Amino acid sequence: MAISTTLAGAYIDGAEHRNTGDPLPVTNPADGRVFADVAGGTADDVDAAVQSAKRAFAEWSALAVSKRGEILGKAAHHVEAHLDELIPMLTREQGKTLRDARIEITKAIDTLMHYVGLSKALRGAHTPNLDPGVDGIVLRRPLGVVGAIVPWNFPTTLLSNKLAPALVAGNTVVAKPAGTTPLTTLRFAELLHEGGLPAGVFNVVTGGGSMAGSALATHSDVRKIAFTGSTPVGEEIMALCAKGTKRVTLELGGSDPMIICEDADLAAAASAASMGRFYNCGQACLAIKRVYVFESVADEVIQAITTKAMRLRVGRGDAEGTQMGPLHTAAQRDEVAGQVERTLAMGGTLAAGGARPDDPDLADGFFYLPTVVVDPPHDSPMAAEEVFGPALPIWRVKDFDEAIERANASQYGLGSSVWTRDLHRARQAAERIEAGYTWINSRTKVYDELPFGGWKSSGYGKEHGEEAFDYYTESKSVVLRSGT
Ligand code: NAD
Q1: pTM of the model as a whole
Q2: Which of these, 390, 383, 178, lies nearest to 283 by C-alpha position?
Q3: Is residue 463 flagged as an active site residue?
Q4: Which of 176, 236, 285, 308 is catalytic?
Q5: What are residue 475's DSSP bridge partners?
Q6: CA-CA distance, 463 to 107, in Å (whole number)?
Q7: How far apart are the first and last CA of the chain?
Q8: How far does the centroid of ligand 1 lie from the alpha carbon of residue 307, in Å?
Q9: What tens digit of pLDDT does each residue of 308-317 get?
Q10: Distance CA 155, CA 111 (A)
């Protein structure tokens, strides 16, 4: 059931822009109904956005860095004033609960404000007396037009992670949200502009990956692509960016392990596992995707996680009391269900879920029950592939060395966590696990203060932290001879 009006689909040069491509349906994952059509972006639309960003660059990059921060800060406050409008919009197009939508958008605004703060604190490098009367100065210059390609699981935070350091560093941005979650991003751009961000500094073109996404990644006036998404598409983007030696950062898939030792606070660890796996209906890059628990405490931990999974209230994201919403698309749900089925066909025990809910009110939505599988084979899909949904495998391990070995037996290296009261073991885990983040006795929270980025097939480059600026600037060494 398509609706009659097709929305314009792009925000370029401080105004709505009507894309020229085929309409893309926007579906409510809670009931499978199309509630909007959005015109898809073509290479021409992407070019219009890039040209706008290019025109805006000269003036924006010439502002004092603190002035850019001040402008972005005011604009971010304007977005914040519209939180109550954005939250249901995000729930409707993405599927997540209203609570998760509030957490997400609040975090997106926090990230903007974090870099606003850093705009007052950025210091440069100066080396006096390289030779008598000669000083060395390292300048940081913005890159130019940055393309930001973002997936559907956290449309606003994953955008802010790129937008904030890019803009504060003096770049201008063209973002391409996922074709299935365009609305919140378009409104976000409009609100930032209304709040004072100059026209052209931030533009959005919605559309499919192979059309608008690759047009952005191959545009000769784009100097960098900041990409978040799956590993196969990230590899494709990296290859596209080779032409013209574009800068690239890639935040890709993950299969984060959690190790629970016998001396851990078991109740807290089980809570963190359940929260880490089922938050956002399991559709998070950083999520607890594999649990390795010491044999001596395994039964207690498995029981605790399974009980939590079975008690989670699954329902529409906009319904009171819902703790876990639907998956984002039917295809995503079928993918996860298929991974669980193929795994169970190889072995392991189903401890919870493994099916769609039987509530007839949820029959048209893309729901899947919180699922726990115990001791599946280590080469089964739930061990070897990224599971991007609410299904958790748990394995018993005999000791710490086996846990570390299993944790590292993955092509991915995004996040990881360890639960133990033994400081030496915690330190060992932090050193030995091959991943960009290790949480010790902590749930999987991402801090703006710390650099974040995957090892191995989980990506390249960093977001967050002051380090993010390194990926949105070029450094230049200046030698200044002031003596005679
Ligand atoms: P995806 O790779 O299919 O799509 C991501 C974005 O890329 C979308 O905007 C899409 O339209 C675009 N795209 C697709 N093909 C393209 C192409 N050929 N050229 C240019 N753009 C293209 O990913 P998805 O399925 O939407 O998102 C889920 C994946 O994202 C998971 O693997 C997840 O782990 C990963 N992810 C990673 C992080 C992180 O920070 N590491 C965060 C969130 C999600």
Answers
A1: 0.96
A2: 390
A3: yes
A4: 285
A5: 140
A6: 14
A7: 78
A8: 32
A9: 999 999 999 9
A10: 14
